[in-house]
Design goal:
Structural class: alpha+beta
CATH class: Alpha Beta
Shape: globular
Strand order of the largest sheet: 2-1-3-4
Order of helices and strands: HEHEEEH
Low-confidence stretches: 1-28
CATH superfamily: Glutaredoxin
Strand content: 15-25%
Mean pLDDT: 82
Radius of gyration: 19 Å
Helix content: 25-40%
Number of strands: 4
Number of helices: 3
């Protein structure tokens, strides 16, 4: 009996491939994204001269870590912040710096989710991806407002 319990414990402990640090455990975020949603095809069709587009996925771990911060950014930013839910129709590639200055939807792609894009004068001013990069860009923008 003791051998069975010990063996079960070993199997249980070794079956966990990765331990998420306690500080990164995502609490269930009950707040909802604001209603400022756009489709990817509408990236360049907004009326404002400058605006942000946050591309996310509901099942994205890092998007959920950033959710409260992005919603706060939406509420306090002097520029509009739109939300775009990731779909498979949104192209993905690694060299997102190549999208800077582009003004045609067929020339724009993301690296993954989360992504924050600034559209200014109907062209891409910046395109950053990943939890750290998006968080830093939000902090930098709010600091400079």
């Amino acid at each position: 009996m003791v051998k069975k319990v010990f063996l079960s414990l070993i199997v249980l402990l070794t079956s966990c491939n990765e331990v998420v640090p306690e500080t990164e455990i995502v609490e269930e975020v009950t707040i909802e994204y604001p209603s400022s949603f756009i489709q990817w095809s509408e990236l360049f069709t907004q009326e404002s001269n400058s605006y942000f587009v946050y591309v996310f996925a509901y099942d994205c771990y890092y998007c959920n870590l950033l959710k409260k911060k992005v919603i706060c950014f939406h509420e306090t930013c002097k520029f509009p912040v739109y939300f775009c839910e990731y779909t498979k129709s949104i192209p993905i590639a690694h060299d997102i710096d190549n999208t800077i200055g582009k003004n045609e939807i067929d020339d724009v792609f993301i690296k993954g989710t989360p992504t924050l894009i600034l559209v200014s004068e109907k062209s891409i001013a910046f395109n950053v991806a990943g939890k750290e990069a998006v968080s830093e860009m939000i902090d930098l923008h709010l600091k400079n407002e």
